[in-house]
Design brief:
By secondary structure, the protein is α/β, with parallel strands linked by helices. Among the domains are: 2-11 and 507-611, Immunoglobulin-like (Sandwich), CATH 2.60.40; 58-200, Galactose-binding domain-like (Jelly Rolls); 224-380, TIM Barrel. 15% of the residues lie in helices and 31% in strands. 49% of the residues are buried. Bound molecules: alpha-L-arabinofuranose (AHR). Alpha-L-arabinofuranose is lined by residues 23, 25, 229-231, 349-350, 397, 426, 465-466, 476.
């Protein structure tokens, strides 16, 4: 491998080349990155109709003798009227004595709540009753026997005759990753509950994100976040698509919605504002994916698309408009008067072939460009198959076998360098060869990313998909980060991405692989970047060996300036491999496949390396 370290022969890599794609799939957000512990906190999972679906809320006590549960539409929240009505039939005295510990309801969260000793949890609930109440709010083990934290709320009839917000801070005295929240009482009467929330009070930057998951994202140093999804944005039906105006404002007032592609309810605690906040917290640019009136099964004709276009314009004003503007003032009222740095707007997802796409697209394009000429518009139409006039970027999705993904490293070698650039917003090895995310898949993806790095004058942005999976609801396989209530690990695909975290804004150097049979299964690239921490220049060579044997490779670096600050002493090599290409990580062995770094003993102008 010949590398020329002269920057003059290299090419700057776009600032935003590598980022992440967040989709509400696999409970990535609800029951994942969004730290809310209560599932179905507003009892709305069945939609606005009565009776609603209170799942996974369950009864504590005997349904016929000690209490009855039902839903009605008496909530004080206009956009989500469903409330839980609990009629307690037993009491502390008389003929029908409540069991010790009381009767009531519990919520097991998303396959168990992770409650940790010494940590604090903010519980908020809305209560109404026709009489005085005495309700124990408790975090307990999975069967209710072990109490991890508890607090009694008492109120007179007059205090709770109207809906009243109650707030409790619980500190856990023990750890249980499979805990639940209980609301119990031993007093006869009728109590209504609504909007019951439990949040750990140590979320990422205090913004509601589950810390350890957000930290894994931060470690990737993503330059952008595409959100809130692909098919999730489309919806199976338009009525179930993500509509941002329903996801902003006080969480209690959000109606929530059923994501009918990945088939689960979300309370939309992770709404449009929170996504923008996440981008800012991670130092990434937002890429806002917008439904342009087309779902997987129904659509709005171009002649009726105007309200959707207005929604798009309003969303931009919300993100970056003046704090005195209609929607900008709502952002300011939430506590963020400064604009978010929204520069990219994706019109639709995978719906280019749809009969209304072109017509709808142009209406959005014209309106957005007129109001915000600097915003880069992303089309879902593929530049390989058609000429694109009205687009700054085109969205390109690649899901392949490992072998085919390795070959895709050359997909952009011949792509035109003029006109719209590619945004490879979804790529991954999937199918049988990928398992649940193995080394083989990661190697092929790394090869593909090396190809993108080398062709970064034709590709501006790239992100892996999907990002997250809650192991209890695997709707798509593989994924980059696997978690349950208390555990998490990166798949090899996650770790492969870490090799590229310095690439955005770096210089891709001129390099040539002299190939023979085995080296045709190699792909390599070299980058150089200046580290702002120590103002020194670093050079990184990345090589993927897709051959089924070890390869001895000579690396020669030419063109180093005599006074170059490129570090040779202290150089390291980082290896992502293990014995078997099918190896995967798991909760039991989360670090089985992880990059290992060691000193590069023979660092210099000429180096012999062995690629396993
Ligand atoms: O990443 C999973 C899905 O794959 C996305 O929702 C969609 O855009 C693609 O088909």
């Amino acid at each position: 491998l010949l590398v020329n370290a002269s920057e003059a022969l290299g090419r700057p890599i776009p600032e935003t080349l590598f980022g992440i794609f967040f989709e509400e799939i696999n409970h990535a957000g609800a029951g994942g990155l969004w730290a809310e512990l209560v599932s179905n906190r507003g009892f709305e999972a069945g939609g606005p109709n009565i009776p609603s679906n209170i799942d996974p809320w369950s009864i504590i006590g005997n349904e016929s003798s000690s209490l009855t549960l039902s839903t009605d539409d008496s909530s004080c929240f206009e956009r989500n009227k469903v409330a839980l009505r609990m009629e307690v039939l037993c009491d502390t005295e008389g003929t029908n004595i409540c069991p010790a510990g009381g009767v009531g309801v519990y919520n097991p969260g998303f396959w168990g709540m992770n409650i940790e000793k010494g940590k604090k949890y903010n519980v908020v609930l809305y209560v109404r009753s026709s009489g005085a109440i005495n309700v124990s709010v408790s975090l307990t083990g999975p069967n209710g026997l072990e109490t991890l934290a508890t607090h009694d709320i008492t109120a007179s009839a007059s205090q709770v005759s109207n809906w009243t917000k109650m707030e409790v801070l619980l500190e856990a005295n023990a750890t249980n990753p499979n805990a639940r929240l209980q609301l119990t009482t031993t007093r006869k009467g009728v109590i209504w509950f609504d909007q019951v929330s439990a949040m750990p009070n140590d979320t990422y930057k205090g913004h509601g994100f589950r810390s350890e998951l957000a930290e894994m994202l931060a470690d990737l140093k993503p330059k952008f976040i595409r959100f809130p999804g692909g098919c999730f944005v489309q919806g199976g039906r338009l009525k179930n698509a993500f509509r941002w105006k329903s996801t902003i404002g006080p969480w209690e007032e959000r109606p929530g919605h059923f994501g009918d592609v990945w088939m689960y309810w979300t309370d939309d605690g992770l709404g449009y504002f929170e996504f923008l906040q996440l981008t800012e917290d991670l130092g990434a640019l937002p890429v806002w994916v917008f439904n342009i009136g087309i779902s997987l099964n129904d659509q709005v004709s171009t002649s009726n698309i105007r309200p959707f276009v207005q929604e798009a314009l309003d969303s931009i004003e919300f993100a970056r408009g003046d704090p005195n503007s209609t929607w900008g003032s709502m952002r300011a009222a939430i506590g963020h008067p400064e604009p978010f740095d929204l520069r990219h707007f994706a019109l639709g997802n995978e719906d280019c072939g749809n009969k209304n796409y072109q017509g709808n697209y142009l209406k959005f394009y014209d309106a957005i460009k007129k109001a915000y000429p600097d915003i880069k518009i992303i089309t879902t139409c593929d530049r390989f198959s058609q000429k694109l006039d009205h687009a700054d970027l085109y969205d390109y999705h690649v899901y392949k076998s490992a072998k085919d993904m390795f070959s895709m490293a050359h997909q952009f070698d011949l792509a035109s360098r003029d006109g719209p650039k590619a945004f490879v917003s979804e790529y991954a090895v999937n199918g049988k060869t990928a398992g649940k995310g193995n080394i083989l898949a990661a190697l092929a993806e790394a090869a593909f990313l090396i190809g993108i790095e080398q062709n970064s004058d034709a590709v501006s942005m790239a992100s892996y998909a999907p990002l997250f999976v809650n192991d209890n609801d695997r709707r798509w396989n593989p994924d980059a980060i696997v978690f349950n209530s208390s555990q998490l690990y990166g798949t090899p695909s996650y770790w492969a991405q870490c090799f590229f975290r310095e690439s955005s804004s770096a210089t891709v150097l001129h390099s040539t692989l002299q190939t023979n049979t085995s080296t045709s299964q190699l792909i390599a690239s070299a980058i150089m970047w200046e580290n702002s921490g120590d103002n020194k220049s670093y050079l990184r060579v990345k090589i993927v060996n897709f051959w089924n044997d070890t390869v001895n490779l000579k690396i020669s670096v030419d063109g180093l300036e005599p006074n170059s600050t490129i570090l040779l002493s202290g150089s390291t090599k980082t290896v992502l491999t293990s014995g078997n290409p099918m190896d995967e990580n798991s909760f039991n062995e989360p670090n089985k496949v992880k990059p290992t770094q060691s000193p590069l003993e023979n660092a210099g102008k000429d180096m012999d390396v062995i690629l396993l």
